[in-house]
Design brief:
Order of helices and strands: EEHEHEHEHEEHEHEHEH
Strand order of the largest sheet: 5-4-3-6-7-10-8-9
Strand content: 15-25%
Number of helices: 8
Largest sheet: 8 strands, parallel
Shape: globular
Protein name: Ornithine cyclodeaminase
Radius of gyration: 20 Å
Helix content: 25-40%
Number of strands: 10
Family: Belongs to the ornithine cyclodeaminase/mu-crystallin family.
């Protein structure tokens, strides 16, 4: 990501946008967990241990009373060695208990908070049916096509972090509204929950779906904050673009 001065257009910072984007996406998921998870201790399911779910788990640990409200973290990845290595790492760094799952089904069935972060691109690849979710589960949708449509037909409540997500017709939840599976007024605003204007979870038995949907502008906003924080801390490396003016 290149940050430009808004008046002159002169470049003021160059940074790795992948780190910012993954961290921002993970944080969006954790904010949903803070306000929508059921009371008490929650077991967690991580499907995929790439950078997005790693960021999400770090943020989730923070919003769950620094891990006090987290029971067991059930970890599944297509690469079992990577899942085992990540599980060992968060046991040491976050002081949480982990269980590397033999299957996605086992991980989902055991969890109260389910967070997939995968690279599926079409609805035909969906693999998580409604019947795998325990009562009271919170499904945090960080990726796109993991849950089968029957989840949306039977879940109790639906939330999104931005109303504009309905307008993205190639992604959930927009495509679900287009297909008539969801009505626009069923999709509730997480921001309203945070502000106290919209009801959150009504009881610990509800199955809730939270669509954590981001836009590129979020990365630019976060990048601006990173750049300002780096200036305060004198972090990063200063680059000299011109020793002297090109035109003399």
């Amino acid at each position: 990501m290149t940050m430009l001065d808004p008046e002159s257009g002169y470049p003021i910072a160059l940074m790795d946008c992948a780190v910012i984007s993954c961290t921002r996406t993970g944080a969006l998921g954790a904010i949903g967990a803070r306000y929508l998870r059921h009371s008490g201790v929650n077991d967690v399911c991580l499907i995929g241990v790439g950078p997005i779910n790693q960021a999400a788990m770090a943020a989730l640990h923070h919003v769950c009373n620094d891990g006090a409200d987290i029971g067991v973290v059930h970890v599944f990845d297509l690469n079992r060695e990577r899942a085992e290595a990540y599980a060992r790492r968060i046991e040491q760094e976050l002081k949480v208990r982990t269980q590397v799952a033999d299957s996605v089904e086992a991980a989902v069935r055991a969890a109260d908070i389910v967070m997939p972060a995968t690279t599926l691109t079409v609805p035909e690849q969906a693999y998580i049916p409604y019947e795998w979710f325990k009562r009271g589960a919170l499904y945090i949708y960080l990726s796109i096509w993991d849950a089968k449509f029957d989840l949306y037909e039977h879940a109790d409540k639906f939330y999104a972090n931005a109303a504009e997500s309905i307008e993205r017709h190639n992604l959930t939840p927009g495509c679900l509204v287009d297909a008539g599976i969801l009505k626009p007024d069923q999709l509730l605003d997480l921001g309203g929950v945070i502000a106290g204007d919209v009801a959150g979870r009504d009881n610990d038995d509800q199955i809730i779906v939270y669509f954590a949907r981001g836009m590129a502008i979020y990365d630019a906003i976060c990048g601006n904050r990173v750049q300002k924080a780096a200036e305060v801390r004198a972090a990063g490396q200063e680059l000299i673009l011109w020793e002297q003016g090109h035109w003399g």
